[in-house]
Write a structure and sequence with these properties.
This protein is mainly α. It contains 5 helices and no strands.
Length: 148
């Protein structure tokens, strides 16, 4: 792979993460205990877990659809794609933080893949947000002195 191919690969990865986020969100809306069980174990069948599972599913559908929509328009307007992808990465990073805060109470076997997948999605999202940044125009940003 050449250095010039890396941004395209990262953009495709950002698209895949966004599409996966929509699929996971739709699953959580319809069957909230399915994605919740690896995360919280048997508690996934309780009312609170089902309500929060659906709420997180709705969040993921919104973030994923927003990112997919913005990625389709990226050539004309890259700013929104970067913002949507970064928002998804932030939500994934906060999922990792929430998991770590409750680490001892989470199921021993499944907490590792849950945190790993959320952490991987956060890193992929951060890389995707970087890859879809607006191209440099050589014009300094407002309020910054020109280099040189």
């Amino acid at each position: 792979m050449t250095a010039g191919a890396a941004p395209g690969l990262v953009r495709r990865a950002a698209w895949a993460v966004a599409a996966g986020r929509v699929a996971l969100g739709l699953t959580a809306l319809a069957w909230p205990s399915v994605p919740a069980r690896p995360w919280v174990g048997a508690a996934a069948d309780g009312l609170a877990a089902r309500v929060f599972g659906r709420a997180l599913g709705a969040r993921d559908v919104a973030l994923g659809l927003g990112a997919l929509w913005a990625l389709r328009r990226q050539a004309a307007e890259p700013g929104p794609a970067r913002a949507w992808i970064a928002a998804g990465a932030l939500s994934d990073a906060l999922d990792v933080a929430a998991s770590l805060a409750s680490w001892q109470e989470l199921p021993q076997l499944s907490r590792w893949p849950v945190v790993g997948s959320a952490g991987g999605a956060a890193l992929a999202g951060a890389a995707g947000a970087w890859a879809v940044r607006p191209a440099s125009t050589g014009v300094p940003a407002a309020g910054r002195p020109a280099a040189g």
